[in-house]
Amino acid sequence: MNKLLVVFYFISIIITAIIFALINVLTGPVLLERSSISNGNPGLFPLIFLTPFLIISIIGTFKLAIMLARKMFKTVQFYLMMICLLVFSSVIYWLTFKEAQALRLFIFQHNHSVTEIAEIPLLNTYSNAIFFNGWTLLALLFTASGIAYIWTFIQHRQ
């Protein structure tokens, strides 16, 4: 990869991490004593700026992982890395999903205007901090790398 592209990739990763942190900070807290009236979701505003940097981060991670996977294809480390990347990202996604379900249940139990739990989406005003944090960013990068390893594995088997 070109050195300028590598620098741009790392800048994109840093900006993506900062925007994920900003989304996390701007997420509205669940306040039980207030009414159900919401002022919107200010945590979603940074997503407008996040999209191009996130795309560059994912593509850059994929390209770097492909280069690394091709170099170490015939080794045991290749298979260990592929398995670890997919297991780690799956565990983070599963924990994120469980945490979002717990928040949804908490909101359902304390909000008497909702009659069914299905009326509360997993991604809502209060759950941005669950879906946009360092762990989910890491899981996203692990997933992109894991796909690159699988891609390399499939290419070399043909």
Topology readout:
Layout: H1 3-26, H2 47-71, H3 76-110, H4 128-131, H5 134-157
Helix pairs in contact: 1-2, 2-5, 3-5
Portion in beta strands? under 5%
Percent helix, as a range, is over 70%
Nearest-integer average pLDDT: 87
- State the assembly state of the protein chains: single chain
DSSP, total strands: 0
Q: Low-confidence spans: pLDDT under 50, at least 5 residues?
A: none
State the secondary-structure class.
mainly alpha
What is the overall shape? elongated
| Integer-rounded radius of gyration | 19 Å
Largest sheet, in brief, is: none
Helical segment count: 5
* Order of helical and strand elements: HHHHH
Report how far the terminal alpha carbons are from each other.
25 Å
Q: What's the short story on this structure?
A:
The chain contains five helices and no strands.
Give a quick set of tags describing it.
158 residues, single chain, elongated
Describe the structure in your own words:
The structure is a single chain. By secondary structure, the protein is mostly helical. 71% of the residues lie in helices and 0% in strands. It has 5 helices and no strands. Helix 1 packs across helix 2 (47-71), helix 2 packs parallel to helix 5 and helix 3 runs antiparallel to helix 5. The longest helix is centred in the middle third of the chain and has 35 residues, at 76-110.
